[in-house]
Amino acid sequence: MGTAARPGFDTDILRQGVEGQTPETLLSLYADDAEIRLVNRNATPSNPKVLHGRDEIGEMLSDVYSRDMTHKLEGCVVQGDRAAYSESCQYSDGMRVLSESMVTLRDGKISEQIIVEAWDE
């Protein structure tokens, strides 16, 4: 009796997606029915912004990647069906944003993600 290999989460594609200038690569890492809960200065923990499915996630990523800013993947840890990563961003005016993500994986794709952002203010 053999065992089937489970697809892994591709951290190289994550880095390419985060640091790239278009959202398509990053969007390819999400399951069709993925959900994101975003907590930041405008979406508090008791009222997070929730995105459902690749269409809504794609709209958010298109908005983010249309801005004059850089993105850098600072680190990523994958263990089983969970991953966590840090992303630092900087707008052209010098404002910085730090984003921490905890993700749940299904078949090598992100099925759930919690993002917590902190902004220079």
Features of the shown structure:
single chain, 121 residues, alpha+beta, 6-stranded mixed sheet, 3 helices, 21% helix, disordered N terminus
Chart the SSEs and their pairings.
Layout (H helix, E strand, L loop, with lengths): L10 H9 L4 H4 L2 E10 L9 E4 H13 L3 E11 L2 E10 L4 E11 L2 E11 L2
Parallel strand pairs: 1-6
Antiparallel strand pairs: 1-2, 3-4, 4-5, 5-6
Question: Could you give a short description of this structure?
Answer:
21% of the residues lie in helices and 47% in strands.
Would you mind describing this structure in some detail?
With 121 residues, this protein is of the alpha+beta class. 21% of the residues lie in helices and 47% in strands. It contains 3 helices and 6 strands. A hairpin with a 4-residue loop joins strand 4 (82-91) and strand 5. The chain is globular. The model is unreliable at 1-5 (pLDDT under 50).
Helix proportion of residues, in percent?
10-25%
Radius of gyration, CA atoms, in whole angstroms:
15 Å
Global mean pLDDT: 93
What string gives the helices and strands in order? HHEEHEEEE
Oligomer state equals single chain
The number of helical elements comes to: 3
The biggest beta sheet reads: 6 strands, mixed
Strand order of the largest sheet: 2-1-6-5-4-3
**Which structural class should the secondary elements be placed in?**
alpha+beta
Shape: globular
What is the number of strand segments?
6
Distance between the termini: 58 Å
What ranges have pLDDT less than 50 throughout 5 or more consecutive residues? 1-5
Kindly estimate the percentage of residues that lie in beta strands according to DSSP.
Answer: over 45%
